[in-house]
Inverse folding.
Protein backbone atom coordinates (compact mmCIF):
# COMPACT_ATOMS: atom_id res chain seq x y z
CA UNK A 1 0.00 0.00 0.00
CA UNK A 2 1.16 3.52 -0.83
CA UNK A 3 0.32 6.58 1.28
CA UNK A 4 0.63 10.07 -0.18
CA UNK A 5 0.45 13.35 1.74
CA UNK A 6 -0.36 16.86 0.59
CA UNK A 7 2.48 18.66 -1.20
CA UNK A 8 3.02 22.42 -1.33
CA UNK A 9 5.05 22.45 -4.52
CA UNK A 10 7.09 20.15 -6.77
CA UNK A 11 10.62 21.19 -7.58
CA UNK A 12 13.66 19.63 -9.21
CA UNK A 13 15.10 18.00 -12.30
CA UNK A 14 14.35 14.32 -12.95
CA UNK A 15 14.47 11.70 -15.65
CA UNK A 16 11.59 9.27 -16.11
CA UNK A 17 11.97 5.60 -17.16
CA UNK A 18 12.17 4.59 -20.81
CA UNK A 19 9.16 4.76 -23.08
CA UNK A 20 7.05 1.62 -22.72
CA UNK A 21 5.74 1.57 -26.31
CA UNK A 22 9.22 2.02 -27.77
CA UNK A 23 10.82 -0.51 -25.38
CA UNK A 24 8.36 -3.24 -26.46
CA UNK A 25 8.94 -2.49 -30.13
CA UNK A 26 12.72 -2.38 -29.69
CA UNK A 27 12.79 -5.96 -28.37
CA UNK A 28 10.25 -7.29 -30.87
CA UNK A 29 11.76 -5.72 -33.97
CA UNK A 30 15.35 -6.48 -32.92
CA UNK A 31 14.35 -10.14 -32.44
CA UNK A 32 13.18 -10.41 -36.07
CA UNK A 33 16.06 -8.32 -37.49
CA UNK A 34 19.27 -9.77 -38.87
CA UNK A 35 22.15 -9.08 -36.47
CA UNK A 36 22.75 -7.96 -32.90
CA UNK A 37 21.19 -4.81 -31.39
CA UNK A 38 21.95 -2.87 -28.23
CA UNK A 39 18.94 -1.20 -26.61
CA UNK A 40 19.77 1.64 -24.20
CA UNK A 41 17.24 3.33 -21.90
CA UNK A 42 15.02 0.20 -22.00
CA UNK A 43 12.11 0.28 -19.52
CA UNK A 44 12.51 -2.50 -16.98
CA UNK A 45 8.81 -2.39 -16.18
CA UNK A 46 6.88 -5.64 -15.85
CA UNK A 47 5.14 -5.19 -19.23
CA UNK A 48 8.40 -4.91 -21.17
CA UNK A 49 9.93 -7.77 -19.18
CA UNK A 50 6.95 -9.86 -20.36
CA UNK A 51 7.90 -9.02 -23.95
CA UNK A 52 11.49 -10.16 -23.31
CA UNK A 53 10.21 -13.41 -21.76
CA UNK A 54 7.95 -14.10 -24.77
CA UNK A 55 10.79 -13.63 -27.27
CA UNK A 56 13.10 -15.80 -25.19
CA UNK A 57 10.34 -18.41 -25.35
CA UNK A 58 10.49 -18.07 -29.14
CA UNK A 59 14.20 -18.93 -29.09
CA UNK A 60 15.79 -15.46 -29.14
CA UNK A 61 18.83 -14.87 -26.95
CA UNK A 62 18.37 -11.60 -25.02
CA UNK A 63 21.00 -10.47 -22.51
CA UNK A 64 20.44 -7.88 -19.80
CA UNK A 65 23.78 -6.11 -19.29
CA UNK A 66 22.47 -3.48 -16.87
CA UNK A 67 22.99 -0.36 -18.95
CA UNK A 68 21.84 -2.05 -22.15
CA UNK A 69 19.80 -4.96 -23.43
CA UNK A 70 21.47 -7.04 -26.14
CA UNK A 71 19.17 -8.83 -28.59
CA UNK A 72 20.62 -11.45 -30.94
CA UNK A 73 18.18 -11.12 -33.82
CA UNK A 74 17.58 -14.09 -36.09
CA UNK A 75 15.74 -12.44 -38.98
CA UNK A 76 12.08 -12.70 -40.00
CA UNK A 77 12.05 -16.51 -40.01
CA UNK A 78 14.41 -17.22 -37.09
CA UNK A 79 11.81 -17.68 -34.35
CA UNK A 80 11.06 -21.24 -33.21
CA UNK A 81 7.90 -22.90 -31.94
CA UNK A 82 7.78 -22.29 -28.16
CA UNK A 83 7.78 -25.32 -25.88
CA UNK A 84 5.22 -23.79 -23.56
CA UNK A 85 2.47 -21.18 -23.39
CA UNK A 86 3.82 -17.61 -23.67
CA UNK A 87 2.73 -15.22 -20.90
CA UNK A 88 2.14 -11.56 -21.84
CA UNK A 89 1.34 -10.74 -18.18
CA UNK A 90 -0.61 -7.48 -17.91
CA UNK A 91 0.45 -6.15 -21.29
CA UNK A 92 -1.97 -5.49 -24.14
CA UNK A 93 0.87 -4.20 -26.31
CA UNK A 94 2.79 -7.47 -25.89
CA UNK A 95 -0.03 -9.84 -26.83
CA UNK A 96 -1.39 -7.76 -29.72
CA UNK A 97 1.89 -6.81 -31.43
CA UNK A 98 3.29 -10.28 -30.84
CA UNK A 99 0.20 -11.73 -32.56
CA UNK A 100 1.07 -9.76 -35.70
CA UNK A 101 4.52 -11.37 -35.78
CA UNK A 102 3.14 -14.83 -34.96
CA UNK A 103 0.70 -14.49 -37.86
CA UNK A 104 3.77 -14.76 -40.10
CA UNK A 105 5.09 -17.97 -38.46
CA UNK A 106 4.13 -21.44 -39.63
CA UNK A 107 4.31 -22.95 -36.14
CA UNK A 108 1.70 -22.86 -33.39
CA UNK A 109 1.86 -20.56 -30.35
CA UNK A 110 -0.44 -20.13 -27.37
CA UNK A 111 -0.38 -16.72 -25.66
CA UNK A 112 -2.06 -15.89 -22.38
CA UNK A 113 -1.88 -13.16 -19.73
CA UNK A 114 -3.05 -12.17 -16.26
CA UNK A 115 -6.71 -11.87 -15.23
CA UNK A 116 -6.99 -8.31 -16.59
CA UNK A 117 -5.41 -9.14 -19.95
CA UNK A 118 -7.58 -12.25 -20.30
CA UNK A 119 -10.64 -9.99 -20.18
CA UNK A 120 -9.46 -7.52 -22.86
CA UNK A 121 -10.69 -7.75 -26.48
CA UNK A 122 -8.54 -9.62 -28.98
CA UNK A 123 -11.08 -9.74 -31.85
CA UNK A 124 -9.75 -6.37 -32.95
CA UNK A 125 -6.50 -8.07 -34.01
CA UNK A 126 -7.88 -11.57 -34.72
CA UNK A 127 -10.29 -10.25 -37.39
CA UNK A 128 -7.69 -8.56 -39.65
CA UNK A 129 -5.00 -11.21 -39.04
CA UNK A 130 -7.45 -13.93 -40.07
CA UNK A 131 -8.24 -11.92 -43.21
CA UNK A 132 -4.51 -12.04 -43.95
CA UNK A 133 -4.58 -15.83 -43.63
CA UNK A 134 -3.57 -16.62 -40.04
CA UNK A 135 -5.54 -19.04 -37.89
CA UNK A 136 -6.45 -17.53 -34.51
CA UNK A 137 -8.57 -19.29 -31.90
CA UNK A 138 -9.33 -18.47 -28.31
CA UNK A 139 -12.08 -18.24 -25.74
CA UNK A 140 -15.19 -16.38 -26.93
CA UNK A 141 -14.49 -17.31 -30.59
CA UNK A 142 -10.98 -15.92 -30.44
CA UNK A 143 -11.83 -12.66 -28.65
CA UNK A 144 -10.27 -13.60 -25.31
CA UNK A 145 -6.87 -14.98 -24.33
CA UNK A 146 -5.48 -17.56 -24.11
CA UNK A 147 -5.25 -17.31 -27.88
CA UNK A 148 -3.82 -19.95 -30.20
CA UNK A 149 -2.11 -18.71 -33.36
CA UNK A 150 -0.84 -20.62 -36.37
CA UNK A 151 0.35 -18.40 -39.19
CA UNK A 152 2.15 -18.51 -42.49
CA UNK A 153 1.28 -17.84 -46.15
CA UNK A 154 -0.10 -14.38 -45.50
CA UNK A 155 -1.56 -12.10 -48.11
CA UNK A 156 -1.74 -8.32 -47.88
CA UNK A 157 -5.00 -6.57 -46.93
CA UNK A 158 -6.28 -3.01 -47.16
CA UNK A 159 -7.77 -2.48 -43.70
CA UNK A 160 -9.96 0.38 -42.52
CA UNK A 161 -9.60 -0.01 -38.76
CA UNK A 162 -12.85 0.47 -36.82
CA UNK A 163 -10.82 1.71 -33.84
CA UNK A 164 -7.93 4.19 -33.69
CA UNK A 165 -5.49 1.88 -31.95
CA UNK A 166 -1.73 1.64 -32.37
CA UNK A 167 -1.84 -1.95 -31.17
CA UNK A 168 -4.23 -2.94 -33.97
CA UNK A 169 -2.34 -0.92 -36.60
CA UNK A 170 1.00 -2.36 -35.44
CA UNK A 171 -0.22 -5.98 -35.43
CA UNK A 172 -1.32 -5.61 -39.07
CA UNK A 173 1.88 -3.83 -40.13
CA UNK A 174 4.04 -6.50 -38.48
CA UNK A 175 2.06 -9.23 -40.27
CA UNK A 176 2.54 -7.12 -43.41
CA UNK A 177 6.30 -7.79 -43.15
CA UNK A 178 5.44 -11.42 -43.98
CA UNK A 179 2.72 -10.81 -46.60
CA UNK A 180 2.72 -10.90 -50.38
CA UNK A 181 1.58 -7.54 -51.72
CA UNK A 182 1.14 -4.14 -50.13
CA UNK A 183 -0.55 -4.13 -46.71
CA UNK A 184 -2.47 -0.92 -46.00
CA UNK A 185 -3.89 0.35 -42.69
CA UNK A 186 -6.28 3.29 -42.43
CA UNK A 187 -7.63 4.80 -39.20
CA UNK A 188 -9.99 7.67 -38.49
CA UNK A 189 -7.64 9.43 -36.06
CA UNK A 190 -3.93 8.72 -36.24
CA UNK A 191 -2.67 6.63 -33.31
CA UNK A 192 0.94 6.57 -32.06
CA UNK A 193 3.35 5.80 -34.91
CA UNK A 194 6.39 4.30 -33.12
CA UNK A 195 6.06 1.03 -35.06
CA UNK A 196 6.18 2.84 -38.40
CA UNK A 197 9.17 4.92 -37.32
CA UNK A 198 11.16 2.00 -36.00
CA UNK A 199 10.34 -0.23 -38.98
CA UNK A 200 11.56 2.53 -41.30
CA UNK A 201 14.78 2.95 -39.28
CA UNK A 202 15.43 -0.83 -39.56
CA UNK A 203 15.04 -0.76 -43.34
CA UNK A 204 11.43 -1.83 -43.96
CA UNK A 205 9.61 -0.73 -47.10
CA UNK A 206 7.00 1.33 -45.24
CA UNK A 207 5.36 4.66 -46.07
CA UNK A 208 2.76 6.98 -44.56
CA UNK A 209 0.75 9.36 -46.72
CA UNK A 210 -2.21 11.39 -45.46
CA UNK A 211 -2.38 9.14 -42.39
CA UNK A 212 -2.59 5.95 -44.51
CA UNK A 213 0.25 3.49 -43.82
CA UNK A 214 1.45 0.91 -46.34
CA UNK A 215 4.10 -1.76 -45.94
CA UNK A 216 5.61 -4.41 -48.22
CA UNK A 217 7.39 -7.64 -47.35
CA UNK A 218 10.84 -6.56 -46.11
CA UNK A 219 13.89 -7.83 -44.24
CA UNK A 220 14.96 -5.85 -41.15
CA UNK A 221 18.60 -5.06 -40.36
CA UNK A 222 19.62 -4.75 -36.68
CA UNK A 223 20.38 -1.23 -35.38
CA UNK A 224 21.25 0.08 -31.94
CA UNK A 225 18.25 1.78 -30.34
CA UNK A 226 18.09 4.51 -27.71
CA UNK A 227 14.77 4.70 -25.87
CA UNK A 228 13.62 8.19 -24.73
CA UNK A 229 11.83 8.87 -21.43
CA UNK A 230 8.14 7.95 -21.41
CA UNK A 231 5.84 10.97 -21.78
CA UNK A 232 3.03 8.85 -20.29
CA UNK A 233 5.09 8.45 -17.10
CA UNK A 234 6.26 12.08 -17.21
CA UNK A 235 2.57 13.07 -17.45
CA UNK A 236 1.94 12.33 -13.75
CA UNK A 237 4.67 14.78 -12.75
CA UNK A 238 3.89 17.31 -15.48
CA UNK A 239 0.21 17.48 -14.59
CA UNK A 240 0.81 17.69 -10.83
CA UNK A 241 3.47 20.43 -11.16
CA UNK A 242 1.38 22.37 -13.71
CA UNK A 243 -1.57 22.52 -11.31
CA UNK A 244 0.43 23.43 -8.20
CA UNK A 245 1.36 27.14 -8.04
CA UNK A 246 5.03 27.71 -7.12
CA UNK A 247 6.21 24.43 -8.67
CA UNK A 248 9.16 24.27 -11.06
CA UNK A 249 10.01 20.92 -12.57
CA UNK A 250 12.33 19.84 -15.39
CA UNK A 251 11.73 16.41 -16.95
CA UNK A 252 14.80 15.46 -18.96
CA UNK A 253 15.01 13.62 -22.30
CA UNK A 254 11.34 12.78 -22.69
CA UNK A 255 9.96 11.40 -25.97
CA UNK A 256 7.98 14.12 -27.76
CA UNK A 257 6.60 12.21 -30.73
CA UNK A 258 3.66 14.38 -31.92
CA UNK A 259 1.30 11.36 -31.76
CA UNK A 260 1.94 11.30 -27.97
CA UNK A 261 2.01 14.98 -26.94
CA UNK A 262 -1.75 15.53 -26.47
CA UNK A 263 -1.07 15.90 -22.73
CA UNK A 264 1.09 18.99 -23.36
CA UNK A 265 -1.58 20.53 -25.60
CA UNK A 266 -4.30 19.89 -23.03
CA UNK A 267 -2.29 21.24 -20.10
CA UNK A 268 -1.45 24.38 -22.08
CA UNK A 269 -5.13 24.85 -22.96
CA UNK A 270 -5.87 24.58 -19.24
CA UNK A 271 -3.46 27.48 -18.73
CA UNK A 272 -0.27 25.59 -17.83
CA UNK A 273 3.16 27.13 -18.30
CA UNK A 274 5.15 24.50 -20.22
CA UNK A 275 8.21 24.98 -22.42
CA UNK A 276 10.47 22.56 -24.28
CA UNK A 277 14.27 22.78 -24.26
CA UNK A 278 17.19 20.82 -25.81
CA UNK A 279 15.10 19.28 -28.59
CA UNK A 280 16.81 16.61 -30.75
CA UNK A 281 15.86 13.62 -32.90
CA UNK A 282 17.05 10.01 -32.45
CA UNK A 283 15.76 7.00 -34.41
CA UNK A 284 13.15 9.29 -35.98
CA UNK A 285 11.74 10.18 -32.54
CA UNK A 286 11.69 13.74 -31.13
CA UNK A 287 13.21 14.02 -27.63
CA UNK A 288 13.53 17.04 -25.33
CA UNK A 289 13.39 18.45 -21.80
CA UNK A 290 9.96 19.53 -20.54
CA UNK A 291 9.94 22.52 -18.19
CA UNK A 292 6.79 23.04 -16.12
CA UNK A 293 5.94 25.99 -13.88
CA UNK A 294 2.96 25.66 -11.57
CA UNK A 295 -0.07 27.91 -11.79
CA UNK A 296 -3.87 27.85 -11.38
CA UNK A 297 -5.49 25.83 -14.17
CA UNK A 298 -8.96 26.06 -15.69
CA UNK A 299 -11.33 23.33 -16.89
CA UNK A 300 -11.72 22.56 -20.61
CA UNK A 301 -13.54 20.23 -23.01
CA UNK A 302 -11.51 17.27 -24.28
CA UNK A 303 -13.05 15.62 -27.33
CA UNK A 304 -12.61 12.56 -29.58
CA UNK A 305 -10.05 14.02 -32.01
CA UNK A 306 -7.28 14.34 -29.43
CA UNK A 307 -8.03 11.15 -27.43
CA UNK A 308 -5.53 8.80 -29.17
CA UNK A 309 -2.76 11.36 -28.46
CA UNK A 310 -3.39 11.22 -24.69
CA UNK A 311 -5.33 8.02 -24.06
CA UNK A 312 -3.15 6.80 -21.16
CA UNK A 313 -2.97 10.26 -19.60
CA UNK A 314 -6.73 10.68 -19.04
CA UNK A 315 -6.67 9.35 -15.45
CA UNK A 316 -4.19 12.03 -14.34
CA UNK A 317 -5.92 14.72 -16.41
CA UNK A 318 -9.13 13.89 -14.51
CA UNK A 319 -7.29 14.40 -11.22
CA UNK A 320 -5.97 17.87 -11.99
CA UNK A 321 -9.30 18.85 -13.57
CA UNK A 322 -10.71 18.36 -10.06
CA UNK A 323 -8.57 21.23 -8.71
CA UNK A 324 -8.83 23.46 -11.81
CA UNK A 325 -11.33 26.29 -11.98
CA UNK A 326 -14.49 25.35 -13.88
CA UNK A 327 -15.82 22.13 -15.31
CA UNK A 328 -13.87 19.66 -17.48
CA UNK A 329 -15.76 17.38 -19.86
CA UNK A 330 -14.02 14.41 -21.48
CA UNK A 331 -15.86 12.64 -24.32
CA UNK A 332 -15.03 10.22 -27.15
CA UNK A 333 -12.88 8.17 -24.79
CA UNK A 334 -14.79 4.85 -24.72
CA UNK A 335 -11.49 3.01 -25.38
CA UNK A 336 -10.73 3.62 -21.69
CA UNK A 337 -13.24 0.87 -20.89
CA UNK A 338 -10.96 -1.83 -22.35
CA UNK A 339 -7.68 -0.93 -20.68
CA UNK A 340 -6.17 -2.69 -17.64
CA UNK A 341 -9.40 -1.71 -15.87
CA UNK A 342 -12.47 0.16 -17.08
CA UNK A 343 -10.71 3.47 -16.49
CA UNK A 344 -13.90 5.55 -16.71
CA UNK A 345 -15.64 3.60 -13.95
CA UNK A 346 -12.56 3.07 -11.81
CA UNK A 347 -11.47 6.72 -11.87
CA UNK A 348 -15.00 8.04 -11.20
CA UNK A 349 -15.48 5.57 -8.32
CA UNK A 350 -12.14 6.35 -6.68
CA UNK A 351 -12.32 10.14 -7.12
CA UNK A 352 -15.77 10.15 -5.52
CA UNK A 353 -14.28 8.39 -2.47
CA UNK A 354 -12.10 11.50 -1.96
CA UNK A 355 -15.03 13.88 -2.18
CA UNK A 356 -14.58 14.91 -5.82
CA UNK A 357 -17.70 15.81 -7.80
CA UNK A 358 -17.45 13.72 -10.94
CA UNK A 359 -20.03 12.10 -13.20
CA UNK A 360 -19.56 9.04 -15.39
CA UNK A 361 -20.50 9.43 -19.07
CA UNK A 362 -20.85 6.56 -21.57
CA UNK A 363 -17.69 7.73 -23.34
CA UNK A 364 -15.87 9.77 -20.71
CA UNK A 365 -16.55 11.84 -17.60
CA UNK A 366 -17.53 15.25 -16.33
CA UNK A 367 -15.44 16.73 -13.51
CA UNK A 368 -16.49 19.78 -11.48
CA UNK A 369 -13.67 22.18 -10.64
CA UNK A 370 -12.21 23.54 -7.39
CA UNK A 371 -12.94 20.43 -5.29
CA UNK A 372 -11.75 20.20 -1.70
CA UNK A 373 -10.13 16.76 -1.96
CA UNK A 374 -10.28 14.76 1.25
CA UNK A 375 -8.01 11.98 2.49
CA UNK A 376 -9.15 8.37 2.23
CA UNK A 377 -8.41 4.85 1.08
CA UNK A 378 -8.57 4.07 -2.62
CA UNK A 379 -8.17 1.00 -4.85
CA UNK A 380 -5.92 0.52 -7.88
CA UNK A 381 -7.89 -2.39 -9.40
CA UNK A 382 -4.42 -3.72 -10.32
CA UNK A 383 -4.19 -0.89 -12.88
CA UNK A 384 -0.86 1.00 -12.77
CA UNK A 385 -2.28 4.21 -14.22
CA UNK A 386 -5.14 4.30 -11.68
CA UNK A 387 -2.69 3.73 -8.81
CA UNK A 388 -0.43 6.60 -9.96
CA UNK A 389 -3.37 8.93 -10.70
CA UNK A 390 -4.71 8.41 -7.17
CA UNK A 391 -1.22 9.06 -5.78
CA UNK A 392 -1.23 12.42 -7.59
CA UNK A 393 -4.66 13.07 -6.07
CA UNK A 394 -3.02 12.66 -2.68
CA UNK A 395 -0.67 15.58 -3.40
CA UNK A 396 -3.72 17.88 -3.49
CA UNK A 397 -5.74 16.29 -0.67
CA UNK A 398 -6.40 17.66 2.81
CA UNK A 399 -5.61 14.31 4.43
CA UNK A 400 -3.47 11.28 3.59
CA UNK A 401 -4.56 9.27 0.54
CA UNK A 402 -3.87 5.53 0.70
CA UNK A 403 -3.72 3.42 -2.45
CA UNK A 404 -4.33 -0.31 -1.98
CA UNK A 405 -2.66 -2.74 -4.34
CA UNK A 406 -0.14 -0.19 -5.53
CA UNK A 407 2.45 -2.83 -6.54
CA UNK A 408 1.03 -2.71 -10.07
CA UNK A 409 2.86 0.62 -10.55
CA UNK A 410 5.88 -1.54 -11.47
CA UNK A 411 4.10 -2.40 -14.74
CA UNK A 412 5.25 0.91 -16.26
CA UNK A 413 7.10 2.99 -13.61
CA UNK A 414 9.04 0.87 -11.08
CA UNK A 415 10.66 3.83 -9.25
CA UNK A 416 7.61 6.14 -9.26
CA UNK A 417 7.57 6.54 -5.48
CA UNK A 418 11.27 7.45 -5.20
CA UNK A 419 11.02 9.96 -8.06
CA UNK A 420 7.96 11.54 -6.50
CA UNK A 421 9.60 11.79 -3.07
CA UNK A 422 12.60 13.52 -4.64
CA UNK A 423 10.54 16.44 -5.99
CA UNK A 424 7.98 16.97 -3.21
CA UNK A 425 8.73 20.16 -1.25
O1 LIG B 1 0.86 0.62 -29.04
C1 LIG B 1 1.12 0.90 -27.85
O2 LIG B 1 2.28 0.83 -27.39
C2 LIG B 1 0.02 1.36 -26.99
C3 LIG B 1 -1.17 1.76 -27.55
C4 LIG B 1 -2.33 2.23 -26.79
O3 LIG B 1 -3.30 1.21 -26.79
P1 LIG B 1 -4.36 1.04 -28.00
O4 LIG B 1 -3.65 0.69 -29.22
O5 LIG B 1 -5.25 -0.10 -27.53
O6 LIG B 1 -5.09 2.33 -28.08
C5 LIG B 1 -1.96 2.57 -25.34
O7 LIG B 1 -3.12 2.73 -24.57
C6 LIG B 1 -1.05 1.55 -24.73
O8 LIG B 1 -0.66 1.93 -23.44
C7 LIG B 1 0.22 1.39 -25.53
C1 LIG C 1 -3.12 0.53 -21.74
C2 LIG C 1 -1.85 0.38 -21.37
O1 LIG C 1 -1.01 -0.64 -21.77
P1 LIG C 1 -1.31 -2.01 -22.53
O2 LIG C 1 -2.48 -1.81 -23.46
O3 LIG C 1 -0.05 -2.35 -23.25
O4 LIG C 1 -1.62 -3.04 -21.47
C3 LIG C 1 -1.21 1.39 -20.50
O5 LIG C 1 0.00 1.28 -20.28
O6 LIG C 1 -1.88 2.32 -19.98
Amino acid sequence: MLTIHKAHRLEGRITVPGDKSISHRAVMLSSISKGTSSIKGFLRGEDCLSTIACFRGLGISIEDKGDEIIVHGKGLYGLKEPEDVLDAGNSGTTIRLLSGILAGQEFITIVTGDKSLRSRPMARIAVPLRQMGASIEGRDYGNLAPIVIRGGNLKAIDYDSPVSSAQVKSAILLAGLYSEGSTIVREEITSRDHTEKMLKALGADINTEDGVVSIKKSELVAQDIEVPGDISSAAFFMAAAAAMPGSHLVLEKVGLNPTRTGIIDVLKEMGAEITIDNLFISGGEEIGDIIVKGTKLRGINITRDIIPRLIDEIPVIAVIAAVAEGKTIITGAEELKVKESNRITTMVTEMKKLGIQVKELPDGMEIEGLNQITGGTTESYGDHRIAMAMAICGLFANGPVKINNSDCIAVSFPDFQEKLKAVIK
About this structure: Residues 20, 47, 91-93, 312, 339-340, 385, 412 surround phosphoenolpyruvate (ligand 2) (CB under 6 Å). The longest helix spans residues 20-31.
